[in-house]
Amino acid sequence: MVKVAITGSTGFVGTNLKSYLHDTYHIESLSVRYVPNQKFTIETDVLIHLAGKAHDLKKVSKPDDYYEANFELTKQLFDSFLSSDASVFIFMSTVKSVADKVNGILTEDIVPDPKTHYGIAKYKAEEYILRQKLPESKRVYILRPCMIHGPENKGNLNLLYKLVSKGVPWPLASYKNERSFLSIENLCFIVKTIIENKKIESGIYHIADDEFVSTNELIKIISSVTNKKNVSIAIPKFIIGSFAKVGDFIKFPLNSETLQKLTENYKVSNEKIKKAIGIEKLPNSAQKGLERTIKSFTK
């Protein structure tokens, strides 16, 4: 049986991947952390590198924390992979390694311009991997997922869920946006397919659900799943903007950063990975995946 080692296996993505792959592969959890001049002993066929420091929404982390966990550690693991008998290396990067804001649709051809220490560290890891000469016997994939969601992972979706479930009217209906999400089921499907399909070329792939979803549509989905009346109010943007600016200086539910996250466009193309796999659609639609996630909040 093919051996698959996963770093960061206790996290949300790692836990789901282990469950998804365990019937087909021998799964091992690889505990790793950055130590200078360290070398790892890689005794597996496939190495999936998920471990790292996630984006700190509370902004209390030190910059070095990101570079050690997301760049230096990845560098050490990849060097160890190259000197091992392992044949496949999958690095879980992020779309934030190339763009914090998106005009149009984000594709793999974009010129990277990360803005945060989290994104910059991930991009430096990508650069290092791509600079190394790859033996013909090895395949290497850099995956850039957008916002991943699924049952038991509330994240940012939980904020909207709480709002709707309490019957609070949605006040930002005047904003029209489109953004990409990624269900954990689709991500697991793609990872498994990459392992199995040796014809998929090494390289960078953006990972997202097929459809774009607006925040207003997301509110409707949450309302439908929770059996709550969808009450949306189109307050003029200049009024919302004024409240957000107030929130930048005093404790208030809305500030400029939150407003941007709720109303921005962030569309990610998944055409390259689908073409490589040879499919037209991923197994789960964006709506189906979001409904499954929201239902898990009600339990």
List the helices and strands and how they pair.
Elements: E1 3-7, H1 12-21, E2 26-30, E3 46-49, H2 63-82, E4 88-92, E5 105-106, H3 117-131, E6 139-145, E7 147-149, H4 157-165, E8 181-183, H5 184-196, E9 203-207, H6 215-226, H7 237-247, H8 256-263, E10 267-268, H9 271-277, H10 286-297
Parallel strand pairs: 1-2, 1-3, 3-4, 4-6, 5-10, 6-9, 7-8
Helix pairs in contact: 1-5, 2-3, 4-6, 6-10, 7-8
Enzyme class: isomerase
EC number: 5.1.3.26
GO molecular function, one term: isomerase activity
Task: Describe the fold and architecture.
The longest helix is centred in the N-terminal third of the chain and has 20 residues, at 63-82. 39% of the residues lie in helices and 14% in strands. By secondary structure, it is α/β, with parallel strands linked by helices. The mean pLDDT is 93. The strands form 3 sheets. Strands 2-1-3-4-6-9 form a 6-stranded parallel β-sheet, with helices on both faces. The chain has a two-stranded parallel sheet with strand order 5-10. The chain has a domain at 3-145: NAD(P)-binding Rossmann-like Domain (Rossmann fold). The protein has helices at residues 12-21, 63-82, 117-131, 157-165, 184-196, 215-226, 237-247, 256-263, 271-277, 286-297, and strands at residues 3-7, 26-30, 46-49, 88-92, 105-106, 139-145, 147-149, 181-183, 203-207, 267-268. The chain is globular, with a radius of gyration of 20 Å. It has 10 helices and 10 strands. β7 (147-149), α4 (157-165) and β8 form a beta-alpha-beta unit.
